[in-house]
Design brief:
Chain lengths: 391, 150
């Protein structure tokens, strides 16, 4: 049992930490806007700033962090990705090290050249079109249909997708075999934006308070004809895509929660040391110290969970159980830490123009897809009931 | 408050299913399917009043309705606190949370049990559907990925 981070991973961690501190955090004012009424807030960085940052990351050799080497990325393991993402989550700047959804890793040679590599080189942008509007809790009933017609597929339906930039192509999930239902009869298509019958609504650049609320794009498909060679993976096997990589993403999202919590702790400590009440620095008050200790315990526990799960993933073990634990714990952890932070900061919830709220908001949204936390607990309980308590 | 012998849900399951699947506050129709007022709770005219399924006007359903809590302005339309008022105020905007049925003193416990066991668990089992068994894909992972868009 070795709890030390390997030396090479430590280097990556330090590199990213410096990058976040020196390059990203100074940009926060640009994203949040300089006025207290957040009128100048934006959702994305300006194009040239972003390109500059990408160049720096490419020079660091970390662009395309978790993309396998065979597909043109760095191929860093899960632990390395967790360390990097943890650092990146300390800021609200919408920036990542060339993150590509693992769903695309199962593309064929032609699709790799046409879609994956341009995506990695930032020449194209994409969105994952899976959820449909008005579905509520019953997401498993997909209404979007793709019918086979003379070797091609005709797509009809409506999707919503979250992305910060206008997509050049969409990764669309549609039911091709309604007999088999969603699980066995869903196929994944790569649909270019300029194809006839496909239109995108929304996605305008938002400023002010609206920039802080992620608004999904609406994708409309009206008799949209797609070639059979645009199928990603195999027909009817959409939910087998990215099988090897997807469970580990849950661990990485846990690492992001830790990053945000560490930033909140930093803010707390800074505030506690500099603020005075009743003639004393507030860090002298026991309640404040208790809150700080609570946060630190939470962060450490989550970190051990995440690193343990990440190491197991790197060893190639099945991590479904661990990943579920990471997600259930780290999301709740971030909520608790945010609550303690409000206590230390005192008074009403943190102001909108500070990065605190945004930090938690985006992470909690990612993790709270519906009642996903309960689902994690079902996974854990299912394993305990099946395999016993020794896991 | 309903009578000791209450409606057997098996007899009304089909119509109950329809009612619960209609986007309207279901409380009034559930009340009419119930057994009605019990003699034990009646005052001096017990023979006459037992079995009456009328709305008592207690206003529980109006108070608990999430649609009206979100949009209190709707309440200004009327001062009535009956289930009919609820239907008029909420109409097809009903969330179908069934809180109104649960809070109605006139609805049979058999119906309430049915909703708790069938309707609410049904929702939970749909969530469980998304996990998948061993070897089956975990569809939730894809939803997380979709929400995560860069």
């Amino acid at each position: 049992m070795d709890f030390n981070i390997p030396e090479d991973m430590k280097m990556v961690q330090t590199l990213t930490r410096d990058f976040v501190k020196n390059q990203l955090i100074p940009l926060e004012r640009q994203v949040l806007g300089r006025d207290s009424d957040i009128v100048g807030a934006r959702r994305t960085l300006p194009q040239d700033t972003e390109e500059k940052l990408v160049k720096i990351v490419q020079d660091m050799g970390l662009w395309g962090l978790s993309v396998p080497e065979s597909l043109g990325g760095v191929g860093l393991g899960v632990l390395g990705t967790c360390l990097v993402e943890e650092e990146l989550a300390k800021t609200i700047i919408p920036f990542n090290f060339g993150d590509v959804t693992p769903v695309l890793f199962d593309c064929n040679e032609q699709q790799k050249v046409e879609y994956l590599l341009p995506l990695l080189e930032r020449k194209k942008n994409t969105c994952l079109a899976l959820t449909e509007p008005g579905e509520g809790i019953n997401q498993i009933q997909m209404e979007m249909k793709a019918e086979k017609l003379n070797g091609d597929y005709v797509l009809n339906g409506k999707k919503i997708a979250f992305t910060s930039r206008q997509p050049d192509f969409a990764i669309v999930f549609a039911v091709t075999d309604s007999q088999k239902g969603v699980r066995g009869g869903t196929t994944c298509f790569l649909v270019d934006k300029d194809i006839a019958g496909f239109s995108i609504v929304g996605g305008e650049e938002m400023t002010g308070w609206r920039a802080q609320v992620p608004v999904p794009l609406t994708l409309l498909f009206n008799n949209c004809r797609v070639d059979a060679d645009k199928i990603l993976g195999q027909e009817g096997k959409a939910f087998s895509l990215g099988g090897k990589y997807l469970p580990a993403r849950r661990i990485v999202r846990g690492a992001r929660c830790i990053g945000a919590a560490v930033r909140l702790l930093d803010v707390c400590v800074e505030h506690a040391k500099s603020w005075q009440s009743f003639g004393k620095v507030i860090s002298d008050w026991p309640t404040i110290q208790l809150a700080l200790a609570d946060i630190a315990i939470d962060i450490h526990a989550a970190r051990l969970l995440v690193y343990d799960a990440a190491c197991k993933a790197d060893e190639g073990k099945d991590i479904h159980h661990e990943a579920a634990m990471v997600k259930a714990f780290s999301t709740e952890m971030l909520k608790r830490v945010a609550d303690r932070t409000v206590l230390v900061k005192g008074g009403p919830a943190p102001a909108r123009e500070l990065p605190l709220e945004m930090l938690c908001q985006s992470l909690l949204m990612q993790n709270f897809g519906e009642r996903a936390l309960e689902v994690q607990k079902y996974i854990i309980a299912g394993n305990i009931l099946k395999l016993g308590t020794i896991i | 408050m309903p009578l000791r012998v209450q409606t057997d849900v098996k007899e009304i399951e089909a119509v109950l299913h329809d009612i619960l699947s209609t986007p309207l506050p279901p409380v009034a129709r559930c009340r009419l399917l119930s057994s009605g007022f019990s003699a034990g709770h009646a005052l001096d005219v017990s023979e006459n009043i037992a079995g009456v399924k009328a709305c008592l006007g207690c206003g529980n359903c109006i108070d608990i309705c999430p649609v009206l809590s979100r949009e209190p302005k709707r309440r200004e339309k009327t001062e009535q606190r009956t289930s009919m008022a609820l239907e008029n105020l909420v109409g097809e905007d009903c969330d179908r949370c069934y809180a109104c049925v649960m809070s109605c003193p006139q609805v049979d416990t058999t119906i309430k049990h049915y909703i708790v066991n069938r309707r609410m668990v049904e929702v939970m089992s749909r969530i469980q559907d998304r996990i998948g068994d061993a070897g089956e894909p975990d569809i939730d992972l894809f939803f997380e990925e979709a929400l995560n868009g860069n």
